[in-house]
Amino acid sequence: MLINCPYCGPRDLSEFTYRGDANRTRPADTSTDQAAWNAYVYERVNTAGDHPEYWQHSGGCRSHILVMRSTLTHEIASVSLARGQKKASARRQQKKRPARRRQEDRT
Amino acid sequence: MSARRTAGGGRIDRTRSVRFHFDGKAYTGFAGDTLASALLACGLTLLGRSFKYHRPRGLVSAGFDEPNALVTILRGDVREANIPATMIEIHDGLVAESQNRFPSLDYDLGAINQLAGPLFSAGFYYKTFMGPAIGPLKGTRLWMLCEPFIRRAAGLGRAGYATDRVRYERMNAFCDVLVVGAGPAGLMAAKTAAAKGARVILAETDPVLGGSANWSNETIDGEDASQWAARTAEALAETDNVRLLPRTTVWGYYDGNTLAALERVADHKRVPENGEPRHRHWTIRARHVVLATGALERPIVFPGNDRPGVMLASAAARYAGEFGVLPGARVAIFTNNDSAYAAARALQRQGAAISAIIDTRPNVSETAAGLANEADAEVLTAHAVVATKGGRSLSGLLARTFDYQTGRFGEAVREIQADCLVVSGGWSPVIHLASQAGTAPIWDDALQAFLPPEPTQKWTGAGAFLGHFSTAEALADGHAAGQAAAGGAKARKPALPKVESLPVDPTPAPVYEVASPDGKGGKAFVDFQNDVTADDVRLAHREGFLSVEHLKRYTTLGMATDQGKTSNIPGLAIMAEARGISIPEAGTTRFRPPFTPVSLGALAAERYGELKPDRLSPMHDWHVENGATMYSAGLWYRPQIYGKAGETVEQAYVREAAAVRRSVGIVDVSTLGKIAVQGPDAAAFLDRVYTNMFSTLPVGKARYGLMLREDGLALDDGTTWRLGENDFLMTTTTANAGNVMQHLEYFLDIVWPDLKVTLTSVTDEWAGAAVAGPKSRDVLAACVSGTALDNETLPFMGIVHGEIAGVAVMICRLSFSGERAYEVYCRAGFGRHVWETLIEAGKPFDIVPYGLEALGALRIEKGHVTGAEIDGRTTARDLYLDWMLSKKKPFIGSMMMDREGLVSEERARLVGLVSLDNQPLGGGAHIVEHNDPHAIRDSIGHVTAVCYSPALGKYIALALVRRGKARHGSRAYISDPLRRRFGPVEIVSHHFFDPEGSRMHG
After folding, report:
1. What ipTM score was computed for the predicted complex, to two decimals?
2. ∠ CA B588-B592-B598 to the nearest 5 degrees?
3. Residue B548: which of B591, B587, B501 has the closest Cα?
4. Minimal Cβ distance to B749: which of A30, A34, A63
5. pLDDT number for residue B633
6. In whole numbers, what is the pLDDT of chain B averaged over residues?
7. B890 vs A: CB within 8 A
């Protein structure tokens, strides 16, 4: 698998470290909403399809990148620097929420 | 020349004979022979013994799908087992031996297993190693004593012990088009793509390119097909943008069009050329892949189908056409399709007599009938082979009238004389790579075969791989695939080579198994290599293992080294029939890499032995020169002890630690992780990552800090020094430096990108020495200039800048040992110079260098925690570090650390242990309340760190024990059954020594 680092260009997977699901939003530092913190630390949506995730180019420029990867085919739809993505991913998260609730209803 | 050699033809070079050894005997073959073809030419038909029953076995195929003829290659003392004889090119000096037989292939004592046939049926191991469920032996372990003997009787080749000193290497390659398979389709695809300027790699398993063209007896563009293939390959070899990889098997198709291949560079040579590896592992990243992997012929399952002399029709044609070896003088044919008729004619033309063609179908096509006529062969339509005759080689067979649609037999039985029976059960496209790359294959009812799935990666198929079995189709496909793969405009009307071939249609009648009409005729094998019979498949069905995946695991069908190349589809068909469903309903297993076995040497290549970099402190050489025993701590090497002659490790560290408490010692702390945290928001950042406050820390002071993870558990601890308003130097534990760096980077990049902070790893920039003990200030006073060192100027946790022997140093007064102590940092390059100056200055005070063991003893006496206690399971409270949890600000983990389970009184918490029997305690030992050495239960905690305390004169330990402090003063026992240690301990405070800290503050 190749990941196209915005700084370094396409590099082999072995240079990168997976740094977690980007499909979640960290509560504000001052938030005391225990449920929100629990959700942030432990709950994952387990997407079948395009999945936003953080990788670090730990064997290269060390920047964190936001990778949109299909969990079905491992195809990477987009790569961008994680810095400055916070607001964008928060918007995505809000859009995803209803879909997740529907899933829970079914189970 | 042996009687089995044909008069001429084939790829072998009859002018060059090659001598080799098989089972200790010398044989001769020709250059270009495989071990299989050479042995066949020498008249050997018995080449192996089967896995469970030790049945005599001969060649089934001529390629990588061979299940029976597995041999061990000997290179000096190095043994390489389970190599198909069909894949070994003979060369002078080749030494091979057969497997799984004792004492010899011809007289194998293990064949007695055949008498116990019913015992070794499907699920044998599962049923056997459970032990008897009833009877007097129930519940005993007696059965297990038999296990090694049973296991030894089954099996394949034996691995050796000798080190393989041959070189292997790895290569990375990039190309526009990777063509897998160099048959007519692959050659055409490579040629077309190369002509369009694409960078092409063409990989072929066989040593000679051409695939079926080498034995098909067809004509392409007016010349013999093998000539056409050779000419095309030659032209490709001379093309700059083409790389030919013969003897190379592409075995894995991974994400992003990354493929793995194994090139057998020098297996066909006595010794590799200078600089040549034996095998080369290729990682190929291709823009586009052309899969032209062909098809494999399937056997038909019938009673006695494993007798040596029974082989695939295409294999027989290959031996005759490609290697000039006739597999028999009188050949019978058993088929459900027309392709075997072409094989019959080819064998007849090479000099074999065709005794009969037994066809399951009631009618045969005119083409087939014509070919049979040309081959002078009688055709028995609507017949099936129901038994084979002979001992270790075939002598004849019984054919009986058979209606394949009802599976019923007629009365008429014919006995047919034959020393070779060639079988064709239809063709299965080799879709393994496509399956690895994509989704499930698609069943084609007309072809009775699984066809490749729709591509989910960038590949195009061509030829028999797509179920297009004729050479003309293969060439057309290859051309189109080459065009598509190279991209760009399409040629309007491709000028394709003209093919003259027999118009045989390989579409088979759906016959996979001919069950015995009367229960006689012998076992009918599905998987030759793992000895799985049709009855085993039915047994699995009766016992409820219906799914293909269960069938596979229960019977081991398809789990041998050939991964079921010849057995998958017949096995599936038999299960489908037993369940009364169709083959696609029964399913297919997904293929996984590797396609064929891969040598571990090639996977490891240069990556063996000690590959870790050694991280050495700037003072490393001094330690070694001064008698230190070096200890590997992660990548670092640190002095364990500076032992004197005759001292044990314990005596050495006790001496060193006692010297620190009495006078002064010096220890190398250069390996601590060091991170420069700088920027206008550095203080705010530290407030968020540490549990305690750092923004209030004055410049020129240090503070001990604790970090938690997001889930509220402890991550790491260390001191951080404020060197300037916006300039902090953070230290981490040696082992955790990388993790902490990554943790901080994550939060800066993703969570708080608005903070203006930069992080720099400066671990290697600084050399550090800790001078500890009552006399430490005197030592510094003797060599430091440019700063005062009194309590006023340099209080506990204070930082000053000065000079030692002309080198700028930074001194921080902090203590891990509990004594008055100073950490002296300087530029790494001056480390040894400063260290030696400190040692010199310490001589009047009998300064002692001390290692990790003494450092550990000193910190255990003080109850300071390290990675052994911050083990990813403990909280700040577990370690009695609650006082560090600020209530004035949020920090990482602050909202999660107060969850119910994390604040429970029942948690294991830090305590001290004192050995009451004056015997050492063992790290990792459990702590129990019962005084019973034999009851290994009811652990209340475990020991994290142990030492002999010179200050207390006792063996002590730190431990994590449930309810911690509440147990102070109580007695418990350490239970360490692995080290056979059980003994009483007293649970005490972890602050063993100087709990008030008067020594380090004073």
Report:
1. 0.85
2. 135
3. B587
4. A63
5. 86
6. 93
7. yes
The pairing of strands B168-180 and B200-203 is parallel
Read off the DSSP letter of residue B89: B
Q: Which amino acid is residue B572, in one-letter code? A: L
Answer for the pair B301, B512: CB distance below 8 angstroms, yes or no.
Answer: yes
Q: Which of B 933-992 lie inside 8 A of A, CB atoms?
A: none
Higher pLDDT, B160 or B431: B431
Pairing of β A50-56 and β A17-21 = antiparallel
Say if A44 is an interface residue toward chain B (CB within 8 Å): no
The closest alpha carbon to B836, from B666, B660, B616, belongs to B666
Domain membership flag for residue B875: no
List all residues 6 or more positions away from B596 whose beta carbon is below 8 Å from its beta carbon: B64, B205, B249, B251, B262
Mutation to test the B interface, candidates A24, A64, A71, most B Cβ within 10 Å = A64
Q: Return the bridge partners of B714, or none.
A: B708
Chain B residues within an 8 Å CB radius of A14:
none
Q: How many helices (H) and strands (E) does chain A have?
A: 2, 6
Q: How many CA atoms lie within 13 A of B2 on its CB side?
A: 21
CB neighbour list of residue B333: distance below 8 Å, 6 or more residues apart: B313, B340, B341, B343, B344, B354, B356, B357, B358, B377, B421, B422, B423, B424
* Structural domain contains residue B183: yes
Which residue does chain A place closest to B456, by CA atoms? A73
Contact B167, B607 (CB under 8 A): no
* Number of domains comprising chain B: 1
Q: Chain B 238-257, CB below 8 Å of chain A: which residues? A: 254-256
Inter-chain touch B742–A26, beta carbons under 8 Å: no
Stretch (H or E) spanning B243 = strand B242-245
Residues B60 and B38: their CA atoms lie apart, in Å, by: 15
Query: E strands of B595-713, at which residues?
Result: 615-616, 628-633, 636-642, 665-668, 673-678, 702-708
- Residue B248 half-sphere exposure, CB side, CA atoms within 13 Å? 27
Return the amino acid letter for B639: P
pLDDT, tens digit (0-9, with 9 covering 90-100), for B365-412:
999 999 999 999 999 999 999 999 998 899 999 999 999 999 999 999
Mutation choice for A interface testing from B749, B754, B758, B900 by most A CBs within 10 A: B749
User: Is the residue at B98 inside a domain?
Assistant: no
Radius of gyration of the CA atoms of chain B, in A? 38
Round to whole Å and give the CA distance between B299 and B425: 5
CATH number, position B269:
3.50.50.60
Omega of the bond leading into B950 within 30 degrees of 0 (cis): no
Residue B662 CA to residue B776 CA, distance in Å, equals: 11
What pLDDT score was predicted for residue B142? 59
What is the side-by-side order of every strand in the sheet holding B94-98?
B25-31, B13-22, B94-98, B70-75, B78-84
Going from N- to C-terminal start, the domains of chain A cover 2-106
Assigned CATH for A2-106: 3.30.2270.10
Report yes or no on B243 lying in a domain: yes
* Phi and psi at residue B78, to the nearest 5°: -80, 125
- Overall pTM surpassing 0.90 (yes/no): no
Residue B327: cis peptide before it, omega within 30 degrees of 0 = no
Tell me the residue type at B356. Answer: A
pLDDT given at position B1: 42
8 Å CB contact between B365 and B503: no
Residues of the domain holding B271: 171-298+427-501
CA distance A95 to B587: 38
The closest CB to that of A74, out of B255, B745, B899, belongs to: B255
